[in-house]
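Quick one:
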Amino acid sequence: MQFDQLHDFADTPRKKLLWSALAVVAAFLLAAFYMVCSQQVQKAQMREAQWTVQRNAVTDCLDFMPKSTVGGCRQHLTAARGTDGGAVSAAMPVGFTYR
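Output:
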């Protein structure tokens, strides 16, 4: 009988350590999930702001340039920002030389 009590007493710190470790892992996972979600929300807000600015620029172009079209305004704005519209292209031409 005393052996059972001794066994339970010795086993209790192990269980507490296990539950503590699981709680720490869960807290880290929750913190990582929060960080990923907040970064995604921030990126979405930046994209929304960028689209709003582009939409306003096209609207201003249509309002203030006589006889302008949507396509003409977009070409005008793209030319003003650069050939690729200010964005980095995913496909870049690369030259390879075989020797």
